[in-house]
Design a protein that fits this description.
about 300 residues; 18 strands; globular; alpha/beta; 9 helices; about 30% strand; 7-stranded mixed β-sheet
């Protein structure tokens, strides 16, 4: 099974602290490197993660608050200094497009690579990126500015060939493609070998959902059914429920309820308020609702 990894670069919220960087993650999936949000300090964290700068191809911004996008122009500038030539694809709410264009023209000269911008309508679920092996969808969220989360899904793959059966029946390698696509095999003696004896079922497609800033949405779980791993903002504990409602954020308890109702495999907590010296209180509240909950910290790597 190919790697599907989530690197936590930052899991704090808007107010900078000495303990946490603001929001950013890198997802390695099917030999691609994607970035989710790009807060101030992201490029330094990217260096620490040892993920190769050159492999990063797509950046997905959830919304236009600084703790989710202030690091973008700095990272783009650095890529230029490093001699990047490959295109960098930016997916973000529409309003970022003109502003990013102005910043690139003002702060960079002879960048050396193209930055391609894709505006996202945050009010509807839609496919925002797709290739032969993965799909990325936007998930509408409710925050103080237009905002969306992202769902990264593997596409179904073909079954695995049982090499011992291929050898047993003398099946040539030229038939591998046909058998993976469901063909049976007829031996020279006329015996029919059913496809089910020649293959092992394909791996179940894996999925990861990144739900950034949002108030609690009682119906959100319907968009996240059976996701393998869910990252859901958990800015506050329930003792600050009024603040979460005022600023359109979620509590750890609410994040866990979304995870439970969606039937996800694991819940990752993040976007912690700077008021917490120890996030254990958030984890305890989440575990009361959804046992398979985990805190995130910078440089953590989660396998999907």
């Amino acid at each position: 099974m190919e790697p599907f990894k989530v690197h936590i670069l930052g899991c704090g919220s808007a107010l900078p602290t000495l303990r946490h960087y603001a929001s950013s993650q890198v997802v390695e999936v099917r030999d691609k490197v994607l970035m989710l949000d790009c807060a101030e300090g992201t490029q330094m964290q990217l260096r620490k993660s040892r993920v190769r700068f050159t492999k990063l191809s797509h950046v997905f911004i959830t919304h236009l608050h600084g703790d989710h996008c202030f690091g973008l122009i700095g990272m783009i500038s650095t890529f230029g200094l490093l001699g990047r030539t490959a295109r960098l694809h930016i997916h973000a709410p529409e309003a970022l497009g003109p502003e990013l264009d102005r910043q690139i023209k003002f702060f960079t000269h002879d960048l050396g690579f193209e930055v391609v911008f894709y505006p996202i309508d945050t009010t509807r679920r839609q496919v925002v990126y797709e290739d032969r092996s993965i799909m990325v969808e936007s998930i509408p969220l409710e925050h103080r500015v237009p905002c969306c989360g992202y769902l990264i899904k593997e596409k179904p793959t073909l079954p695995h060939i049982r090499r011992e059966m291929m050898e047993c029946y003398g099946i040539p390698n030229s038939q591998v493609g046909n058998i993976k696509n469901g063909a049976d095999w007829n031996t020279a003696d006329g015996e029919l070998i059913p496809n089910s004896r020649l293959v092992i079922p394909a791996d179940k497609p894996r999925s990861y959902a990144y739900i950034s800033d949002t108030r609690y949405m009682p119906y959100l779980h319907k968009e996240l059914k059976d996701v393998d791993v869910l990252y859901h903002e958990s800015t506050y504990a329930d003792d600050h429920l009024p603040q979460s409602e005022k600023y359109y954020h979620s509590t750890a308890h609410q994040a866990a309820k979304v995870a439970l109702d969606a039937g996800v495999g694991r819940l990752l907590l993040g976007h912690y308020s700077s008021r917490y010296e120890d996030e254990q209180v958030l984890l305890n509240e989440a575990k009361e609702v959804f046992e398979n909950s985990f805190l995130t910290n910078e440089m953590d790597i989660f396998e999907i």
